[in-house]
Each structure stands twice: as C-alpha cells, then as structure tokens.
C-alpha cells in the first residue's frame, strides 16, 4: 500500500469517479500527474512581464493616435491607425512572419541602444505613395520595383513621422528618433540575434479604402535600461513638481510683459435692422447708460473694473474707481 496522503479534493474526485465507474484510482493519479507537468520552451523565454508589455502598448496607442492625425494631414484622406495586439516573441519568429517584400524602417532612438523596426505592409505603403503623388490611394503591391523617386518620397514621409514617435515616448524618456535605413527584404536585416526576445506591437491601418498592418518590433536590449519605468507603479505615481524660484520669477515677468486689450464701454443700445440700415451722419443713438454713471471697463473681453472718463495730459483717460471680483453679477451688462 502506498504511503501517499490524498487531499480532500482528490478524495472527493476519486470517490465520484469510482462510484460512476469512469476511472480507477490509478487512472486518476496518472491524470493528475499529466496536468502538473507543463512544457517550457527556453528559446521563447518571456523577459517582459504582462505589466511591462501593457506599458509599452500604452505608448504605442498614443503613437497610433498621433500617426492618424499626421497621415490624415499629409495624405488628405481618411486614415485610421489603432493598436491591435502586443506580444513578445523571439526575433527569429518575427522575421519569419514578415512578407518577402515589404517596407521595413530601421529606427534608432538615442539615448537608448539598439535599433527598432517599423514594418509597413506593402499595400499600405504603396497606397500612401499613391496619395502623395496625387492618386486615389490604390493599394497595389509593387514594393519590389519601386523607383528611386518613389523610395525617396516614402522615406521622407516616414522620416517626418518620427516627431510623433518622439512625442509618444516623451512621458517615459526623451528620445531623438533617427531613420537609419529602409529595407524591403527581411532576409537582409539582422538587428539582434535570432533568439533575442522582442516586443511586437501590431497596428491596424486604414488609408482610404485600403487596409493593412503596421508592426513595430522592439528588441529587449533597447528597453532594458528603462524596464523599471515600465511598471504600473511608475505610471500611477504622481510626483509633485516643485517650482524653482528662478522659474517663478521668470513666469511672473512673462505675465507682467503680456499685452491685453482694455476697453471702456459707454453703454449699449438695441435697435431694429431697419433703423440700423437708415443710420446717417448726425443721427443720435440713445445708450442705456446715464451720462453721469460709471463706465464698465473690460480686459480681454471680460468685465474687470468700474471707472469714470476724464482727461490726463490733454488725452482721453479712464480713472479706475472699483474692481469687479469674480462672481459679481451686478455689472454684467
């Protein structure tokens, strides 16, 4: 007899299975052992936690929104880009999934080391080029025989989009993105070793009536220096910003040097359109304010002071009598 002690759950399951004749006690033990063992692929080691992958996803969700605005303005057509999924896989597996002929922008983002890849589906890439050249944005796949002019236009288009990438990363780290290379054959591109873990952000892209994918491949070595910042604690922590004395002094000076409009209203009147159209030189319009009543003085279009008209050094002037505090309604004419 075995000296093993079964748990209460095992005992209940065993009694239930035996009473129904579904299995014997030995069959039950074998089934339990089978569920306890899980296969682990060391080539697919997960080097990022789910929390860290979510943080990277948030960055590129912002990037997708910025790209949507940028490409809509550049291409003057309907553009919609959104994050579809995020996963971490070996670089070798990612390269195998890339089409033979596609557009792969190799991007450096100093001060972070390494290079990342922005892969644009050929149909989407050519649709963008077609729009830049004045076409309707038809998504033909002719990436393998692009002319030098088309390649230059495409490079310029994506190079200017790096400003959006810089803005998307600004909340995490200040980067200076640089488009270092454009490749159309993935077999000629090796940014990291085949077994290196990479984060792949897949985005759905719609340009006019053309749909495709934009994939971002980020190696682990590039994100390694900022991994502590990718935790939820970092995103949720609110650091209180302390204003330096010199910053406060500079802000005060800037406010003092600001130019605002100031207007003194003599009063107002309501007339019909017929009377307005028949106004002629010498006509008199009666205002709703008495001649000896104080005037309403507005700054930036909002009532701020009460004053009286007069002269100073032979020039028309207004003397301030009182200040209208926030919420006062009696002078809201």
From TrEMBL:
Keywords noted in UniProt: Bacterial flagellum, Cell membrane, Cell projection, Chemotaxis, Cilium, Flagellar rotation, Flagellum, Membrane
Entry-linked Gene3D superfamilies: CheC-like, SpoA-like
Annotated localization: Bacterial flagellum basal body; Cell membrane
Recorded topology in the membrane: Peripheral membrane protein
Domain of life from the UniProt record: Bacteria
One of the Pfam families matching this protein, by short name: FliM
Similarity-based family: Belongs to the FliM family.
Name by which UniProt lists this protein: Flagellar motor switch protein FliM
The encoding gene: fliM
